[in-house]
Amino acid sequence: MQFPDDENGQLLAEIAAAGVDLSKMQQIDFFILFEQQADADKFAKDIVSDALVQTADVEKCKDTGVWEVITHVQMVPEHTLLGQAEQYLESIANGYNGYGDGWGLMDKDAA
């Protein structure tokens, strides 16, 4: 399987090499960062009303002290769709003083 030569493509290649079937629906976690807890809480509350996002969790990053909203999206992890979802969520987060920090795929065995 070939992947574009960019950050998302490299991550997809690593996930595929780990044995994840990228043709099936997966839970993709998109990470959005906020300096203020109030902004993170409001974004998390509002974003779950969006059809794309199933749930969202707010956590404080132990290392940096910033607030992180982890949005959970069920989708087939296809390169173009991932980029579009990432841009879409970040465009909404910008209105809440947030910014995107990438995505990840939860290993079902590690959950």
TrEMBL record:
Superkingdom: Bacteria
Regions that span the bilayer: none
UniProt feature coiled coil, ranges: none
InterPro entries for the chain: RraB-like_sf, RraB_dom
Protein name, as recorded: Ribonuclease E inhibitor RraB
Organism from which the protein derives: Pseudoalteromonas marina
Residue span(s) of domain Regulator of ribonuclease activity B: 6-104
